[in-house]
Every structure is written in C-alpha cells, then in structure tokens.
Amino acid sequence: MSTTLQIESFVTQVRRDILRMVHKVNSGHPGGSLGCTEFISVLFQNIMERKPGFEMNGVDEDLFFLSNGHISPVFYSVLARSGYFPVEELNTFRLINSRLQGHPTTHEGLPGVRIASGSLGQGMSVAIGSALAKKLNKDSHLVYSLHGDGELQEGQNWEAIMYASAKNVDNYIATIDVNGKQIDGTTDDVLHMGSLKDKFTSFGWDVLEISKGNDIEAIVEGINEAKSRTGKGKPICVLLYTEMGNGVDFMMHTHAWHGKAPSDDQLENALSQNPETLGDY
Amino acid sequence: MKKYTDTGKQDTRSGFGAGLTELGRTNPNVVALCADLIGSLKMEQFIAENPERFFQIGIAEANMMGIAAGLTIGGKIPFTGTFANFSTGRVYDQIRQSIAYSDKNVKICASHAGLTLGEDGATHQILEDIGLMKMLPGMVVINPCDFNQTKAATIAIADYEGPVYLRFGRPKVANFTPENGSFEIGKGIMLNEGTDVTLVATGHLVWEALLAAEVLESEGISAEVINIHTIKPLDEAIILKSVAKTGCLVSCEEHNHLGGLGESISRVLVKNTPVPQEFVATNDTFGESGTPAQLMKKYGLDSEAIQAAAKKVLVRK
Fold first, then answer.
1. Above 80 in pLDDT, residue A1?
2. How far apart are CA B116 and CA B295, in angstroms?
C-alpha cells in the first residue's frame, strides 16, 4: 500500500503523461482525465487487490471498469505505471497500429482493459455482470466502476441501477465522477439531473459522498468506507465531486478542455505545474 | 428425391429450451438471462434445475446484454433470451461495443424471428436482424430449421468461443432433421441432390424448400436443396459446388432481401461463379398481423413462392 506522498508523486507523473499523450496527437480528453487522476491512481495503487499479470477472467482479484471511456489517457497512464504494459507504449496513444485506441478496447489485447467503452452508459451493466460472476465463483473480491455524471443521462444506467439494488449486487462499488460538466456545458444547463444522491438512494443504493474528490486522503478514506459497506445487501454508490482539469490552473473551472489538446506553449505551462517525478516515458 | 418425414410439428424455440436444459446438466459454466419472456423462450426447465445460474433481468434488454458481457469476465457462458426484435435492433450498440468489439463469449438467443410470430404484427416481426447481426465483425449468425436442429445448435454454440446470434421462431413447424444430430457451425447440409436448380434455404424456409423440390420433381425439374443453417460464416464451398452443376440458384429466407442470406450468397456468386439468382424473401417491407401461414403466403415465403422462383431462375440460365 502506497503512502499519501507516494501517491502524490504518482499522480503528478500521471498528469504529465495525460498532457503529453493528448498534446502529441492533438486529440483526446484531458479535462475529465485530470479530474479523475487522483481517484484512479488511489484505486490501483492503494485500494484494489490485484494479481500480477493480467487475466481477462480476473478471478480472485478486484476488478475495475471504466465506463466513461473517453478519459482513456488517465486509464492508460495508471495501467502502464501499475505494471500492466510498458510505459513507453503511452507514446503510441491514438496512433495507427496502437493498442492504445482513442477509447479503451479489449480488441487489441491491451492488458488491464476488460471491456470496450466509449459509447456511454454501458459500463455499469458490464460491471454488474462481472460482480454476479464473482458471486457464482464464490470469489469475495470486489468490482469497481467509474462513470461520468453527464453519462448518467444514458437510460441504460437506470436499468442497471434498478437491477443492482433489486438483486442485491452488494459486491460492487460504482463511482460517479461529479464534475458538473459535459461537452456542451454544465450538466445543469444541458440536462439538469436533480439530486444524484436522492436518485441513487431512492433506487435502493447505499450512497456516500467524497466532497473533496481530488484530495488523496479524502479518496482513500471514502473508498475504504465504501468497501466496509459492501456485503450488506446493497450496491454502493460513491459520488466523487471533482474538478475537471485538476492540477493545471488554466484547465480548471471550465468545460473547455473536455476534448481539446493543449498547444505547445500551453503544454509547457501545464508541465511546469507538474514537475517530473517517476520519469517521463 | 430423398424423403424427409415430419416426425410431428414442434416449435424451434422449444428446441432451444431443450438444448439449454441439456447444457444446464452438462456444462456448469452455462448461465441464462431473460428479459421477462421465460415462457416464450422455453427456459423453465433450465431455471427449475439451475436457479442460481439464471438471471431474470426484467424488461431491460440493454442491461441484459451488458450483464451478459460482464458474466463472461469470470468464465461464464451466458445465453440471453428474448424476442429477435429486442435481441438485435433494440440493443444494437450494446451488442456492438460490449459484446462484439469486446470479443465476449455471449450467445444471443432470439425467438419469434420473422413474420411467423404472427398476430402481434410488425412491431415484433423483425425482418432485418440477420443483416444487423451479420454486419458485426466476428459475430456468428445461425438460423436453424426445426426443433431438432435448434436443439443441436444450442448445444454446439456453447463449445464455440465467441459471440453468436442464434435465431429461431414461434410457430410449430415440421421436425424432420435427425434427433440428437450433430451440428457443425458453418457447415451447410445437402438435403437433396439435383441437377437443374439449387435451392438454398435457412430457418423455417428449409422445409418449404423441400416441399417445393417435391412438386418441382413431379414437373420434371430436378432441384438440389441445401440447408444453410449458418449464415455467417457462410459455407461457400457447398454453394459453389452446387451451382457449378445446376447453373442457377434460389435463396430462401424469412427475412428482408436486403441484408439477408440471399445477399451473402450473391456476394459469393459474383466473386466466383456469376449465375442467375432469385430471392425468396420479403421485399423491403414491414410485416403485419395474421396467422403464420397467411403471412408466409401473402409475403411470398412459402413452397409455392419457391417453386415460382425456381421456374423464373431456370429460364434465366
């Protein structure tokens, strides 16, 4: 288990990776990636019980599903730096003949990815399926998933949310990245969703909130609390309140960087705010 | 001509139910999911014998496809059950991304395909599903012809690693293939050898093609009849070998002529041996309410339609 200091250093390097990957190909989604960097880093470095190597079936280990696949840069960086594939491969992000497709896929055989995502709203169903398989296999490990808040506008989520509580899928922790932003603006402006807490609660989930969703200690504490509530008959929802573009001052407090790459000057500025820690790829 | 005997009319969906029941007894990794149509899909026996391996999803087909994909992660072999319409068009993107593109070992089992669903009408009578599913890279598409073959196909696909679309139907139809016969994915079956015209049929139309061949024989026309239960991958060799002899072909399917078996055959013919082809299929139309027999007659999918198509294609040789 990593210390807070170690994770901070890991997070800074992941931010650099995200910025450099997206800059190189002048495409990709840095905003949401940076907003979830602390969470995904903590999950892989501190929370999940993972087996060395990669087996698609993932028996006897915790599993993670990224439903909002457009934040692939953070996913790829954390996977590489958690040992799933060589960090040098981050250089191939979105290039032809790469395993690091624009959105994550199993099709190219990239270790660490268990399902394709990108077309939104599908990951929760898949995560639930894998949680059901764990129950059948008498495997007591947990399933985690991450979803965008805007992504909850897709109806399939609500089929899955209804199912998980009705069928007591209590070995499952779904985290919602509540950054309040989507491509066309704020989630309130695009399609106001009301209280997510009330919605999940009324659907029978056990809901907890991490108000400081970019604070490592708050995330560790929150997810450990979520873990302690598993196995009690209810699926767990974590509402993770994050800042899109976190760690790069000019990318924060705006939805402008949802799907836009920084220029050369902007990259230099952004990297200067996140000095190299574990070594660039 | 070779004689085939109807051993008693049964529905192909019951063949699926029987196959699933057998899999429940023989393969501990097989699990089943249903979206509120247990009775229609004949899943009761599997559920009674394996309650822990059955998942009632409710009326939420998109969620069902995703859960099925997830169950494969953990080594399960999920069989999803609902109507063909709700197994394909309704959940196309879920199948495309979470199953086909993700290479998941899900068996999409679809009942009530085509016009023979009958009185429920066009909202439920999908005639586009073969096209939708065959276009997905890596998807196997199977449309067995009777109870025995549907049972055999259901059992066979559990041993195949990869996504499969298994299409069957509602009405009781002739059961004439061997009981407990083997089923080889992608291998067409020569039902009757002939010299004048090749009839290639899938699903419910196979029996109609046999009936047509009998009548044609009485009129002095020798029809070769091939059962193509697997539309993808298509058994190109059996088709090419046959038209090398007959020089013309009629494709027969309970599906739109756009995107179905007939189009797959056309592609094979034009690339190898261009010969005249006629299509017994629906003509870019929706269905309507009626009995299965009425609908098959009205939309030109019965034995008489096949006979007429055979005569038409013969003069184009």
1. no
2. 7
Contacts of A117 (CB under 8 A, 6+ apart): A65, A66, A67, A68, A69, A103, A104, A123, B97
Domain A4-272, what architecture?
Answer: 3-Layer(aba) Sandwich (3.40)
Catalytic residue selected from B22, B44, B49, B61: B61
Rounded to whole angstroms, the Cα distance separating A149 from A241 reads 10
Which chain A residues are Cβ-neighbours of B50 within 8 angstroms?
none
Start-end of H helices in B159-284: 205-218, 236-246, 261-272
Q: Which ipTM was obtained for this model?
A: 0.97
* Predicted pLDDT of residue B118: 95
Mean pLDDT of B2-27: 97
Q: What is the pLDDT of residues A176-225, one digit of tens each?
A: 999 999 999 999 999 999 999 999 999 999 999 999 999 999 999 999 99
**Residue ranges of domains in chain A:** 4-272
H or E stretch at A217: helix A216-228
CB contact under 8 A, A115 and B70: yes
Decide if B75 and A118 are in contact by the 8 Å CB cutoff: no
Is A126 in CB contact (< 8 Å) with chain B? yes
Cβ B70 vs Cβ A145: under 8 Å: no
- Residue B263 bears catalytic tag: no
Q: Can you give the pLDDT at residue B130?
A: 98
Top-tier CATH class for B10-172: alpha beta
Are A238 and A208 within 8 A, CB to CB?
yes
Residue identified by tokens 């509602």 is: B170
| Distance separating alpha carbons of residues B115 and B204, to the nearest angstrom | 10
Q: What is the pLDDT of residues B130-156, one digit of tens each?
A: 999 999 999 999 999 999 999 999 999
- Neighboring chain B residues of A132 at a CB cutoff of 8 Å: 55, 67, 70-71
Nearest residue in chain A measured CA to CA from B59: A159
- How far away is chain A from the Cα of B71, in angstroms, using its nearest Cα? 5
Residue B187 — very low, low, confident or very high, per pLDDT cuts 50/70/90? very high
Contacts of A139 in chain B (CB under 8 A): 74
Q: Say which CATH class B189-314 falls into.
A: alpha beta
pTM of the model: 0.97
Domain layout of chain B by residue ranges: 10-172, 189-314
